[in-house]
């Protein structure tokens, strides 16, 4: 990602814009998956921060901007704060300033508010916007932290006018006009930022990197490390270069250490389980190669029309374990499967079933097409579900009787299993 914006005069500097580090963020139930590299993932945010510090030192940047959600709420212990302080000390020794606004996750924590930091680090207050100057660079950084976890007012509206003769940077944690998957915190219109007259807006809160506009640059750097499959793809920060007589250069720098991905395996026309595994291996190899040298954590989706549809659903656990085993043998520590979704479909034009199987097909079709019937089925099964062991009921892979979509998936698996057994009993294929 590379952007050229308005020309900046009488200036030569370089800075890093980052946000949403979520240092030591807890796992999203990954420990529930057998064989998950739990400790490696637990340390991922620290290793990504280490990459960011090394980038700042290697590039000899003048300052670092952190646009909120440095932490993830209260720490489990003081090690999180001590680790961050030690990294800031490295930047202090190199003469690199650090400017921070606290976001919704930071504001939700209590321990972080009394954190002692080296003199190069400044956290903007939450009561009102503040301006900090770097006189040697003629830079003015404007910012305001969140006072609480859910800030719904337009903070940008209260930011001060630009300082004459300086490069003005706005540091803000915001959803802007709203982004899917993110709470609508500190919302503002793009025009609120553009019309302020600043030279660069360093935003945070949205975990996908985006240059919203180029003149002036209004930028989300994205998070530094994906924490679940919805935060897939390359993650990192923005390295910004401003030189006299030239437009600002904005480069996205990849600093993540583990990559979350999705891989779709098309099984159209597949006739044997060996063919399923071969297609999976070939497709997953592309995913692993595309993200080297980083290890990947992947969600696998089996799709397409295949004669194996019923067989796969009838013994879905075997298929999942076969895929995991295939991945372990082929890729070792380079890849791990987070989840496998079966979204295959039966082949069109198949000779219709008759007798009991046809009656079963009609019943399942009626239930599947009616949310009310699925809800009623869930209500019937709820007492049985409550009798299952607690470990299963709390497992991320378990079904929810009150979720029609989950019931539809369960119904499809039960249907496939019954059809498979009825065909086997009748001698049909």
Automatic annotation (TrEMBL):
It comes from the Bacteria. Transmembrane segments: none annotated. It holds the Pfam family Metallophos. CDD domains: MPP_Mre11_N. Gene3D superfamilies: 3.60.21.10. GO terms for molecular function: hydrolase activity. Keywords: Hydrolase. PANTHER family: COMPONENT OF ATP-DEPENDENT DSDNA EXONUCLEASE, PHOSPHOESTERASE. This is Metallophosphoesterase. It comes from Desulfosarcina ovata subsp. sediminis.
